[in-house]
Design goal:
mainly alpha; 67 residues; two-stranded parallel ribbon; 6% strand; 2 strands
């Protein structure tokens, strides 16, 4: 479930399952910043990803990544 309407994606980011959540957040934030996302948009995705367990975190981040 993408947090934005229309959906917004970070392109070319590969997340490694089993990686520390803080590393995943940093990778996502770095890539999103380079692709001109605003700080509020990045925080919105990270807030949603922090609400659940590790599987929820991965699912939320994957919904915002386009290979």
């Amino acid at each position: 479930m993408n947090q934005f309407n229309p959906p917004k994606y970070v392109k070319g980011l590969n997340l490694k399952f089993g990686e520390n959540p803080f590393v995943l957040f940093a990778q996502f934030a770095f890539s999103a910043t380079r692709q001109m996302w605003t700080k509020e948009e990045i925080e919105q995705v990270i807030r949603a990803a922090k609400k659940g367990n590790y599987m929820n975190l991965m699912k939320i981040l994957q919904f915002h990544i386009k290979k």
